[in-house]
Structure prediction request, 143 residues.
Amino acid sequence: MQAVAKLKNLSVSPRKVRLVADLIRGAGATQGLAILKHTSKKCAIHLEKLLLSAVSNWERKNENVALEEAGLCIKAVWVDGAGMLKRLKPAPQGRAHRIRKRSSHITLIVDSTKGVTRLSSRAEKGPVESVKQTEENTDGAKS
Prediction:
């Protein structure tokens, strides 16, 4: 079973956050935490807290499964743009240049790789025997 954690209105541009998010996408939860702990970007701290929140959410949903046995991995991470603060900066000859202070929304999904496997309805009934059926024509030849 998967768990989701979201971080909204982080005051770091989405382009900068995606650089760090690409490092942890598809990694295990413990490996992702180690990568984020040793990354020197500002958003790595925020992603680390978000990953810990997602793991905590997963533990809350799956109280009967041990965290060590579950083998959690980061299934998906995506970064979207949020609202922009628009500011003006003085420029030469009385002009003004616009500054866009971008922010981002981050969504992180954690899933268990060794979770509880559910049997399909066919597997519950037992193995299906394969039977070869041959049809005979009216003249007795097999097709």
In short: The chain has one domain: 3-116. The chain has five helices and three strands.
